[in-house]
Amino acid sequence: MQIAPVLVALSVAWGQSQLPAGKVARIDGAQDVKVRNAQGTLVASVGDSLYTADHVLTGAGQSVAITLKDESEIVVGPSSDLVVKDIATPQRHSTRLSLLYGMLHTWVKQHYSSDQPFVVETPTAAMGVRGTEFVVEHDPKAGQSQVHTLDGTVSLAKSFTDLLKPGSFLDVGAGMMSALAPGMALPAAARQFSPQELLNRLKIDPFKALPKSFVPAMPAVPKLVPDMPKIPAPKRIQDLKNLFN
Q: Residue 87 in 3-state DSSP?
């Protein structure tokens, strides 16, 4: 007979000595988020710590804002599974996250190097950045991964190894998006996207999951492609429309 996993309080179940990889900053929707690790399926609340190898599992209509140890800020969108694979330390300046399915909105605060980047991986793609803001989506049915860059540049490739090989990745600048699907040798050519297009894909406003002090003021993004409007710097991001109006 199969026994369903028991949900227990995160602070009680975690008797581990490793340092936290991050902390739950806010939960939008159902206020208890499931976290799966070697000890089973646990329940995390605002203020609880997360550790490497933890799966953050969100339900429909639920999003979770997390502050990582390197001060990067992420929002795990609804119906998503995110794994904290590695976190930057003074000895190893590299952070790696794995989005198995769903959506992830990321602000990378520290400046990483090209050989030790901040990396988000999906089952079919890898994105490496040095310091930027972007949204990653992965559709497990189609096997397709997409990246929308809001600030800075994101390098998109089939794998982490390809991110380090010249000619094996595509740089996706601010206001641009690209995608990778099974069978594609290289990412699709980058193209402009509209804020409404991205909002429709997300089907939720992830920014309302953020506390008032969660997002720093953003500098203006310069004109990177012909006919692309200049993006103003709002004091606080309310939704994606503010970035393009």
A: coil
